[in-house]
Design a protein that fits this description.
It is globular, with a radius of gyration of 14 Å. It is built from no helices and eight strands. The chain has one domain. Strands 1, 2, 3, 4, 5, 6, 7 and 8 form an eight-stranded antiparallel sheet that branches. The protein starts with a strand and ends with a strand. By secondary structure, it is mostly beta strands. The protein has strands at about 5-10, 15-25, 30-35, 40, 45-50, 55-65, 70, 75-80.
Length: about 80
């Protein structure tokens, strides 16, 4: 990883390391994250995207089989900061 990247690792509640990590890369004033490894959920390859800004998180997850979405979707969920 380079100096403008952050790795978010994925663990179970019992602190067991599992697949599903996300690599964030700085893009201007925000960080954009995508899958760092192959993760299988519900018999499909997990595709994740997350965008972090100073006051907002946008993200989606979906499962792909043979290039087709079988669950979830690519519409971004938006979570906005309400208070300073």
């Amino acid at each position: 990883m380079s100096g403008n990247q952050i790795l978010m690792q994925n663990y179970t509640p019992d602190w067991e390391k599992v697949t599903g990590d996300i690599i964030f890369t700085k893009n201007g004033t925000q960080y954009e994250g995508t899958n760092a490894d192959v993760c299988i959920r519900y018999n499909a390859v997990l595709e994740s995207k997350m965008i972090l800004t100073g006051d907002q998180i946008m993200c989606y997850d979906c499962g792909l089989q043979e290039g087709k979405i079988t669950w979830g979707g690519r519409d971004l969920y938006e979570f906005k900061k309400l208070h300073n």
